[in-house]
Amino acid sequence: MCVVLSSPVGRIEISGCGTGVHEIQLQGNVLPSSGTMESLVSCEVCEAPEEMTAPLKQCVAWLQAYFCEPWMIEKLTMPPFHHPLLEQASFTREVLWTLLRDVKFGEAVSYKQLADLAGNSKAARAVGGAMRSNPVPIIIPCHRVICSSGQTGNYTGGSHLKEWLLSHERLQKEKLAY
């Protein structure tokens, strides 16, 4: 089962079943310039099955909140995931769950810091591999992992998308601080 959202970062395809979300794919990302970020905060369903499973509904609600009402994210139920990478014990799974649990909206962490948090301080390169294989980007926020130098580093959707997501979170966090 699949749902497609039209978001500020382009089309987002979510696949899943009654057990959980399988994958989130960022497709054809046409990003607004940073000057228009404020005005483009809609996130609408553009393709969906007649009856959506509960995990897909939760995922759609979470992504809509992420883009339009980020202060609501903490109040929403995280959609369950149904992907082997997130179910089988591995360093990758540990890194992804650590990232989800410990690095909050508007924060960033280096690959090395995340390796430390996940229990293996020498595994910064393996953390990069874990980020590349993340099946549910944005929800498990691999865009928040940056280089120790402060540069954004690589991102499956492209570095421009990673920069946009980080900037979106920074702006929203600043708004909430007032």
UniProtKB/TrEMBL annotation:
Catalysed reaction, written as an equation: a 4-O-methyl-thymidine in DNA + L-cysteinyl-[protein] = a thymidine in DNA + S-methyl-L-cysteinyl-[protein]; a 6-O-methyl-2'-deoxyguanosine in DNA + L-cysteinyl-[protein] = S-methyl-L-cysteinyl-[protein] + a 2'-deoxyguanosine in DNA
InterPro entries to which the protein is assigned, alphabetical: MethylDNA_cys_MeTrfase_AS (IPR001497), MethylDNA_cys_MeTrfase_DNA-bd (IPR014048), MethylDNA_cys_MeTrfase_DNAb (IPR036217), MethylG_MeTrfase_N (IPR008332), MGMT_N_sf (IPR036631), WH-like_DNA-bd_sf (IPR036388)
Pfam families: DNA_binding_1 (PF01035), Methyltransf_1N (PF02870)
Cofactor names: Zn(2+)
Broad class of where this protein is predominantly found: nucleus
Keywords on record: DNA damage, DNA repair, DNA-binding, Metal-binding, Methyltransferase, Nucleus, Phosphoprotein, Transferase, Zinc
Gene Ontology MF terms in the entry: methyltransferase activity
Domain Methylated-DNA-[protein]-cysteine S-methyltransferase DNA binding: 93-170
Biological process annotations from GO: methylation
Superkingdom of source: Eukaryota
Cellular localization per UniProt: Nucleus
Keyword match Hydrolase: no
Boundaries of every Methylguanine DNA methyltransferase ribonuclease-like domain copy: 4-67
E.C. numbers: 2.1.1.63
Function: Involved in the cellular defense against the biological effects of O6-methylguanine (O6-MeG) and O4-methylthymine (O4-MeT) in DNA. Repairs the methylated nucleobase in DNA by stoichiometrically transferring the methyl group to a cysteine residue in the enzyme. This is a suicide reaction: the enzyme is irreversibly inactivated.
Entry's family note: Belongs to the MGMT family.
PANTHER family on file: METHYLATED-DNA--PROTEIN-CYSTEINE METHYLTRANSFERASE
Protein name, UniProt field: Methylated-DNA--protein-cysteine methyltransferase
Gene giving rise to this polypeptide: MGMT
